[in-house]
Amino acid sequence: MAKRDYYDVLGVARTAPTEEIKTAYRKLARQHHPDVNRGNPKVAEEKFKELSEAYEVLLDPEKRRRYDAAGFGAVESDFGPGGFTWQNFTHRADLEDLLGSSDFLEQLLRQGFVTDGFLDRGERRAGPGRGRDVEVAIRLPLSAAVHGAEPTIEVPSTDTCQACQGNGSKDGTELETCPECEGRGQIRRSTSRGYTQMISVSECPTCHGTGRRIKVPCPVCAGRGTLHRVRQLLVKVPPGLDDGSVVRLLGQGGAGAPGGKPGDLFVHVEFEPDSRLRRDGRDAFVETDVPLPVLLLGGEVRVPTVTGEAMLKIPAGTQPEAQFRLRGEGFPTFRGGGRGDVIVQVHAEIPRHLTTRQKELVREAFGTGLPPKPSAKGGLFGRRG
């Protein structure tokens, strides 16, 4: 698909000021968010990505200047050979402010569009470092995909030291301005090569980007501002989740640097298989053996469903391997929208041993099932000659 002009993508004029670009992006981002366009989420994600690429270029004065002068080719080097990816997006804080209540950023992480580095990039630029995200995995019975669950899990965590309130100094006393970076939190270094001057900016190694330095370290946490422990946490797993889904708990990850936000907890949910049925999205597939008399004469058999058992009516003359559908007996849809079905495939239950009397009755009812013997006069067409 051919790339569209960034100004056309956001629907703004080439002379649009920064605030107008921000307003346009926020409006279109809400409009094309995958949660709003569930009928075609892949198209919505691509549209959302296109909007974010345009936003990334037009909100940056230098990138916008180069784009205005020479078009797409002038900014391709900023994105790499594969084009724009979410790793190139430097306005994570704008996305979180816009979508913080949804699971879109979680989806991006799970699908590999972004990494933990993208998720904590915004805070690290703005000030004290954000805490690390924590990932754990839990395994639940398949019934939890139907009814939901609230398991209690053990989470390794890095929590704020209460003795110093997280600033790392004894009794939480006020910190002094870092003499290394003079309170900026960053170290700028410049090197010259001929007529070219290279400037690099990195986090201050003394204050770790905070701009402040501890006078007397806290004796409880040794100046780290955090303590390591394992804590118990209740996780609410909603009904309808697919196997491998991720539940994101905001602020339940590792503690940040003094004054920084905590990270998030990502809980990977797996469901134990059930030997009685197989799950495929909202539907469940069941195989069951049905006695031969029931297939011939009709009747009812009990079959497993995702909520227990149900009676399945078998019409007379049902053939082996036939399938039946129990509507609304399958798995629920995440965030509502009804339930799937249970598809039952029946197998004939053939007796392995028959008595002499039973064999006679079968022959009487159905015959021997053998082809007729050839005519004694010669083959199927009689004697030649």
Kindly describe this structure.
- The structure is a single chain.
- The chain has helices at 6-10, 18-31, 41-58, 61-70, 76-79, 92-99, 104-110, 116-119, 121-126, 144-147, 292-297, 356-366, and strands at residues 134-140, 152-160, 176-177, 186-193, 196-203, 212-213, 226-234, 246-249, 265-271, 277-280, 283-291, 299-305, 308-314, 323-326, 342-349.
- With 385 residues, it is an alpha+beta fold.
- It folds into three domains: 1-126, Helix Hairpins (Orthogonal Bundle); 128-175 and 214-272, Sandwich (HSP40/DNAj peptide-binding domain); 277-366, HSP40/DNAj peptide-binding domain.
- It has a four-stranded mixed beta sheet with strand order 10-11-15-14. Strands 1-9-8 form a three-stranded mixed beta sheet.
- The model is unreliable at 109-126 (pLDDT under 50).
